[in-house]
Structures are given as C-alpha cells and as structure tokens.
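User: Um, what's this?
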Amino acid sequence: MKVSQRDLKILLPLSFGAMMLMLVFLTRSFSGTFAIMLVVVLSVMTAMGLGGWAGLPMTSPSAVAPIVVLTVAIASCVHIFSTLAQQLGGDAPGPPLARDDGAAYQRPRSRERRQGAIIEAVRVNLEPIALASPTTALGFLSLHFSEVPPFHDLGTFVAFGVGASFVLSVTFLPALLSLLPIRGSDARQRPLAAMNALAEFVVRRRRALLWGSGMVVAALVASIPRNELNDAFLHYFDESVEFRRDVEFTAKNLTGMYTLEYSLASVMPGGITEPAYLADAAAFADWYQGQPETIHVSVITDTFRRLNMSMHGDDPAEYRLPASRELAAQYLLLYELSLPFGVDLNNLIDVDRSSSRMTVATRSLSSNEAIELDRRALHWLTDHAPNIVPAGSSGAAVMFANLGRRNALAMLVGTPIALIGISFVLVFALRSLRIGITSLVPNLVPGALGFGIWGLAVGQVGVSLSMVTAMTLGIVVDDTVHFLSNYQRARRELSHPAPDAVRMAFRTVGSALLTTSLVLVAGFIVISLSSFELNSDMGQLTALVIALALLADFFLLPPLLMRVDAGADGDGSVPASRSILDQQG
C-alpha cells in the first residue's frame, strides 16, 4: 500500500504532464489541450467519487485506477477536438449581426464558423463515441472474472471513468470549446496530408499488406507458448523498496519469508503419539531438509526428540523419538504443563490430537518453483508415509503460486465473453454482421501480438499480465469503432466504394487515432515506471498492445475491409484520378 501511495503521488502527476505535453505537441493547441485535460481530470474525480460512494476499497492493484482512467478517458475528447481542428481552416470576417440595443456590429465569421464546426464535430463523433464507451467499459468490467477481488475494483473504477468521460465529452467539452480561443492552423493540416498519403499507400498495397500482416501475426502468435505463467511475490517490488531489501537480508542471514504449511493428519484420534505416525512425520521433515529450496523445517517431532533427550540427562544419543505411544503421550503432557500461563499447543496440534502442523521455510521461490516443490512433497508423502493421510498444503507461498494460474484460467472465460458482448454491440450498431465479425480481427490481434513479443523478450507472465488482454480489449476497440463507423458512413451515406471509404476513414479519423494512441502509450509508459511489478508490467505490455493496435487499424483492418467488401464493388478498385480525395481536393 505504501508503494501504491507513492505511485499516486509521483506517477499520477507525471502521467498527467506527459499526456499534456504529448497533446500540445500533436494538437498544436494550448486551449484544446487545456479543455481535454480538464475533462479528463473531471472524469477521474467522478470515477473515484462514484467508487467511494459504492464502497470500493483502495488496494494496491486498484490504486492505479486514477492513472488508467486518466489515459482511457482522453480518447473521446481527442476525436472531437481533432474533427473540430479539421473543420477550422482559418479565420475570416463575417456578416454584421444585431446587438441587443438594436445597433449593428461586425463579428468575426470565425466565431460563427467555429460553433458550426463544434456542432459538426459532435454530430460526426457522437455515434462512434457512444459505441466506444460501452465497449471500453465492457472490456474493463470483464476484470470481474478475475480471481483477484482488487482487480474487480479496478475494472469498476475505470468503467465509472469511461461513463463519466462520455457524458462530459459530448456536453461539457463542446461548451468549453465554444468559449476558448480555438483557431484554425495550417500546421494542423500537415498531419491530414500525411494521412492522405498513408491512405493511398494502404489502398494501393492492400494485398501485400494483408498477406504480410498475416505472416507477421502467424509468426508472433506462434511465440505465445514461450510465455510461462510464473510469479515471484518478492519481485513484485523492485530493489528500491526497503521491504524487499530487508526480506532478502533476512532470507540470507536468518530465515525465509516464503513458507509452506502442512497439516499432517493421522488415521485416528490421538494418533499423533503413535510411534509409526511420528516416524513418518520425522521422515517427511528430514526429506524436506534435504531439498535445496529449504531453509528450515518446524515440526512437532523435533520437540519429542528434545524432550526424550532431556529426560535422559541431555544425552545426545537419546535425541530420538519415544519408543511407545504411552511415553510420547506423557512427554506431550509434561511439555504442555511446562508452558507459561495462557500458552498452549493449539498452533501445533489440533484439539483431539489427530493431526500436527509442519511449517517449511524456503528461499525466495517463483510460483512455478513453489508448485513444483509442493508437488514433489505430496508425491513423497503419498509413497513413503502410510500413517499420514495425504492432504494439500497451504500458506501464502502456495496461495500466490496458484493465483496466477487460476486468474489466467478465469480470464480465458471472461475475455471471450467480453469480446462476444463487444462484437454484438458493433454488429447491432453498424447493422452489418460481416463488419461486426471483421472487427474481431483488429480487436484480438494486438493482444496476441503483444504476448508473442513478450514471449520472445521476457517469457514470464504474472498475475497482472493475465488480465492485460481484457484491459486492452476495452482500449483498442475504441480506435476500431471510430474507423469502422466512419468507413460505414462513407459506404452508406456517401455510397463510396470500399477503397474510397478507407480513404475517407483515414482522412476523418486517422490523425485522431494517431494522437490518442500516442497519448495512451505515453500514459501507460509512465505507469511502467512504478516500483510495483503488477503495475509496471501491466503498463509495459499495455503500451505495447496499444501501439500494435494502431498498426493493426492502419495496415491490417483497411485491407481486410476492402477484401471483405470486394464482392460489393466488383474488384474493389477505383482509379486514383477519381478517388474521393481528388474530388475533395
């Protein structure tokens, strides 16, 4: 929790500053950046306030929610402002208007034109924003399938923020932009020319891009199995955290933080004083002492041995287990009577004397190492200890070791459900089963590519990364929705063939997609600076997936759309001289 609070104090302002600088650089407008960031801040405040009213706790994973909301809430605002900037080409004087006192004055046409541009920006973007917001919320709400309750809270916090950003971006933002000095700039037209050139490249090279993208996707997807589900709790914190340094010192010089607990049950009540049971328990402890992962073993049989030695004049040769059940029971009674007032043995043996506790302290283990050690131990217990009832282990080490796997399996259910829900929304809204199914590709491919690259570069997937697909699904679908919405509008409202509809989509939303993706990448890269590994790895992989999603929306989705719609347009080709871009100049 201390690390999370430190992240909020440092990373939240740093993320805000990085995104603000990126917005100023990409939009070339201080007024527009101020308006966007104000909406984003209000969205964060609303999300955290609603979470407070709902009673959601602030835990280590959910404490990163303000930074996540800060990043995802920016997309809708950027799309509206980008369309507004395209509508504004410059300032010119306008017609005289009447004042309240009946006199006439000359008002710049730019104000009237700007208001019209704001109205057009909201009109063009209202449908895709209304689609992107619930689909983004669905992606984050799928975190409720996680086995980790704090991640449920993270998903709810972000869903609150997405809803707040939608309402504010279509109400508060347009009103604010109408009051701020927003001017047209030729500098903002240069990205538009670059998008036109990119659209022409994609249209002309669509077959090569489709086949090339397919081969790249296949190659990287084949690398996904290189990832290993593995966690090391101590490594959740980097070496700058005092807790990790102290634990490593303790493990090196005293004992370990990682423990595995075993309840060694006998076959009858009072059976822990049976010599055969004690012999099996001692043999199990001796086996564990011989394992390279073990630092110390605490077991009741050591107490029996010390008592037997003490009752024989501290003769080292008598450091052994009692020879009979009666002698063991007397030793146990003597030991209990010698304990200080208020102290008993209930932490070591149960009330009816049918089972005892064994605690194994180990060096720092990854989740796979802990699971493998526990597997070997239970296998030995089954084969060599007939007087002990086999039982599973417990303890924090075992819990964290199994958490990643259980969480990954749970998200294998949650992510497809979220994907089905998102696809259903897109099919219903775009009124096209073909386009809805096609949208699955750019929504799934980035996550698959991200995990493929992660498998090649790192190869370790922890509990936080098992949810990145669900999280990024809610983010990357935003760009896909805007591209598809404008593509469909060009196809239906303007009756353009598929290539020209692609050109129109690039011209309309290409700059906004680039801006939002770069800003989101910057925001999540800041999260990757966290000293808490769950947040750091999530930030790194999410930034990678968002960047890959932009590439998929630019180089895979358009060729795929032209391929899918080729039957409706003949061969799908349009002479460059007759393209919509030439018609519009």
